[in-house]
Here is the input.
Amino acid sequence: MTYSIVACDLDAREWGVAVQSKFLAVGSIVPWADPLAGAVATQAFANPRYGPDGLALLRDGLAAADVVQRLTSADDRRGERQLGVLDGEGRGASYTGEACNSWAGHRTGAGYAAQGNILVSGETVDALAETFEATAGLPLVERLLDCLDAAQAAGGDSRGQQSAAILVVGAGQGYGGLSDSLVDLRVDDHRRPLEELRRVYAIHQELFGQTPRFQWIGVDDGLRREIADRLAVLGYERLEDWAGVENLEERVDGLDAIDPFVLERLRERST
Here is the structure.
């Protein structure tokens, strides 16, 4: 009752999972990822243990195909399961049990494994795979979101839409450089979950995205006065204090230069 893709960007050292389903809070069941080790998607009549157990096997150095074999061979109900695994070398492997409701199937390639069940047709899985292959060079998060959109346009879950999620990890690439979760967003119940996921991701980028440092604006005396005046209007003395309230602290670094997004938001708030 789900379609998903597990994928990686080996150059960026990122691994992720994107999923959509006619199922409440699909993000709480399907996606699992561990930086440098790999990623897992467990679905159909999902076995939740495939997630943590699969990541443990990946951390032990098993290849994706061996992880799939190890997990499914030990499961008496494997015929009802569907599984996608990507290892730390970017090798993908999938499994679709013979008792999964049709249409059900999978497709793997360099850097990804795509799978789905109870789909309108196999075109949904083809769209996942072909979109990923066609978007090389884009950030992994954007590629995965594009994959979900293309899969839905190709038919998607035959029962409709309800929830969606995206999880992308990279060692030390998350909040404050202390988290491995680069993006971990879920839409648990929505008529158009993919559109809502895009909206939430846009907010995530506003708050936690990075403007390249060379694009920051140097703060001269005139701009420094403007910033101080605008902060005063809002009741603040320090830019850091205001940025903390706005959840923009990740975009502030010293007083010699300012992220143009932060300056734009300050001007909007103080006008």
Remarks:
- The chain has two domains: 2-191, 213-269.
- The longest strand covers residues 2-9.
- The chain has a mean pLDDT of 96.
